[in-house]
Amino acid sequence: MKTYLITIDGGTTNTRAFLWNSQGQVVASAKAAVGVQLTAETGSNQALKETVRRLIDSLLEERSIKISDVGAIYASGMITSNVGLLEVPHLIAPVSLKDFAAGVVLKLLPDLCPVPIHFIPGMKNMPDSKVTLENLESMDIMRGEETEALALLDYAGLGGDCLLVLPGSHTKFITVDAGGRLTGCLTSLSGELLAAITQHTVVADAVERSFVNQEWDPAYLLAGFYAARDTSCARGAFLTRIARQFLTDKQNQCASFLLGAVLENDIAAIRSSHALKIRPSMRVRIAGKEPLCSALLKLLKETDYFSDIQSVHLPDQCPMAGYGALLIAKERGDFYESNT
Q: How many domains does the chain have?
């Protein structure tokens, strides 16, 4: 009896694989520091193929099972891009769980695995043909975050009419309508920008080339936020150096100030961007990396635009991308959850 499901989350620099049992629980996991960036650099996806094959073998070995025990394999993320294993066209918003399930592309890659892999499509805001220089800012794309969004909607019990926030190197803001369809996305480089400023600018000395830790300072976070709001992100970031020289010698306070200055861009973007259509009545749910998650929660509450803002913490044993892929597999009839 085929009682297992494998989900693969392929990112830019890492690839993760999870083995789910018939109760919808992760019973094995594997990770490798290989992603599509290597394909882009070398012009070949062979290393990525070998990595995915090793991850699948590792899952099977950990549980002492065979590939014949696996009902299906689902893959999402950048692994479905032109530098992944199989390029799958983005679906055009609005997109429902059923639409994602219908858009899955099944492909057998015999040199990787004897079982066909189900590749989950990403999403874009509009058709390519409609993008112009004038409306470029309305366009956005995502691969992988759509499965995280579906997982968050299901886990938090949200019916829709909400804004989902997924902080990370590339922070995603995703709107969902009352019918549960993903209606648009907006991408920010705040995580990468924060890393670049922390490591490669004159501000690096002020923050000791280190990110803020979990115990960020609320007062300095807000001070950085308002400095950037009242001037600019670049000015706010530089003021981190001024704060270190004249106000504090504590690294975490300076790093909190810088975090607030960078995240101000994100708060401003969701209010002014044409990529999303937001309303104060929308519920806001934030899930993802710390301290970005709690810092964004604090700043969104500070702006006093949305009235219902909460963070959602999925259990460590329930990876968001994998859980979203499992929901799509259930929708397609490739996974049947058992209570026994």
A: 2
* CA-derived radius of gyration, the chain: 21
The three-state secondary structure class of 160 is: coil
Co-location of 287 and 162 in the same domain: yes
pLDDT band of 339, cuts 50, 70, 90: low
Cβ atoms 315, 25 nearer than 8 A: no
For residue 194, the model assigns a pLDDT of 95
38 and 90 housed in the same domain: yes
Q: Where are the alpha helices (DSSP H) in 125-185?
A: 145-155
Sign for the pseudo-dihedral over CA of 176, 177, 180, 184: negative
Strand order across the beta sheet in which 91-92 lies: 91-92, 123-124, 141-142
**107 with 176, same domain?**
no
pLDDT of residue 86: 94
Half-sphere exposure of 87 (CA within 13 A, CB side): 6
Give the pLDDT confidence score for residue 318 in this predicted structure.
Answer: 83
Cα separation of 60 and 93, whole Å? 36
Predicted TM-score (pTM) of this structure: 0.93
Ranges 85-94, 95-104, 118-127, 153-162: which has the least confidence: 153-162
Exposure of 275 by Cβ count < 10 A (0-12 exposed, 13-18 middle, 19+ buried)? buried
pLDDT of 132 above 90: yes
Q: Once rounded to an integer, what is the mean pLDDT over residues 166-171?
A: 90
Shared domain check, 226 and 96: no
Instruction: Verify that 175 and 207 share a domain, yes or no.
Output: yes
What count of other Cβ atoms lies within 10 Å of the Cβ of residue 48? 25
Amino acid at the residue 115:
V
pLDDT at 12: 86
Task: Find, among 39, 26, 23, the residue nearest to 10 by Cα.
Answer: 39
